[in-house]
Specification:
Order of helices and strands: HHHHHHHHHHHHEEEEEEHEEHHHEHHEEH
CATH topology of the largest domain: Jelly Rolls
Number of strands: 11
Structural class: alpha+beta
Number of domains: 4
Strand content: 5-15%
Strand order of the largest sheet: 1-8-3-6
Amino acid sequence: MQQLQTLNDLFHTLQNERGFAMLYLRENTTQSKQEMLHYFAKSNQSIERFNSTIAQQSNQTTDLAEEELAHIIHKNLNHLMDSRLKLLDLALKTSSAFDVYSYQLISPIIQLITHLILKVKNTHPSAVNAYCFFLQWKEKVGLERSIIMRGFIDGNSNNNECIEHIKVLINEQQYYKNSFLSLATIEQKKFIDTLYQTPDIDTLHTIHQQLSTQGKSDILNKMNAKDWFTLISKKIDRLHHIEKQLRLNLDGKHQLSRRKINTPSTSERLAYKVTLFQEMPGEEVEQIISCSKIYQIPKNKVLILENNSITHLHIVLMGWVKVFKQNNNQAEILQIISNNETVLEHCLLTHQVFDANAKTITDTLMLSIPINVVNHTLAHSAKFAHNIIIMSAQKTNTALQNLQSIKHKSTEQRMGEFFLKLLNDKKWQSNAIQLPYNKSFISSYLGMSRETFSRNLKYLARQGVNIEHNTITIIDKEKLCQYCHFDANNQCYNFQLNQCHHNGQAEG
């Protein structure tokens, strides 16, 4: 936690130094020079604490990525001293000063903060992901301050080039803010409420509205550079205060819903039985679970956002999760994940960011393993690596089967296969199955319209499949075997017990 505090203070002081550097290059007065030196001094305090932390870390075991980021920051902080001298002599262009602070220092600092968050024990995955988005939101506000300051310097703060740049930043701020709120816990959202209780924030909001809708702002037009710097700095300082609360709250208790979610008392026992741990030594499984957490996640809660950094490997213990892409405000469903399945594990294997979104369909019990624990286990357990590769391959195969079904099979066949899979999941133990989601969702997943789905239900009713509300009643379960195909055999409970009613003679 001490490292995070040091980095967050460094992030904030360098943001402030960058913002005032833009003002100094415009003002060029004795008073502004003294203020610039004051900002240098504030940053130097944070730099000294950072260098001290690096020295303390030199004798400790850290991973390679953390070491590389710390080295980059340390090296660029040394170069900052030369840039400051040029800045004071007005020998540094605004674009060069902007790049030094934004890309050489602040960007790697945010990356290192994100990396270190994962080492905080007992952190809630949603709280971690929300915190990462909050840092990006705060930086976009800092960039807005600096870019409009550059606009004042160049005399185009209310002109097209500057305005277009700011409009992009406004959209990015909204994206990161919404991403934060969609992932945030109840406790984290409370801190944000305090941001909008001051008239200064209302003024900034009005400026944003004017720039977005009119392409100019009469409020901004009446301001000078110092007025703008003072106004938006209040918001950035407020965000810094909120960031401190978010950081201190990381390892606290978090709720995603005020509604009580009913979960089995044997939830930890479910974690030990997941396929990912199959045939692994008991002490290895114990070590993984002791470093992980089981969370109750309410229905319709965002779990993963596309292009977000990978912080955890999520395994569904009980419930349903949809994986989807967002295209033109429409959710294109890629996968439906249920008990004992991992969520977007292929991104972890390729060390990428998440390439899709994930959201709970029902109240869900989730085992979340921190990424550093996963990487350590992959490096030391061949069986764990084997299991995760097999699970990923099986999901890829299922996705290809679904794609083939949508392209080559009739709507009746697709629906029959879907109901057969639900029957397999219940191990053929009942004639009645509760649907985890509504008919519109099922029809979308199967690649058909709601009307087509309803039409084909009438035909399936003659095959002994009836749906009333969210309950499927199957009068003659064996009739669904006509929709079986060879690849589904190994997933069929009856086939595994040598009680197959179809003898593998299904259509391909």
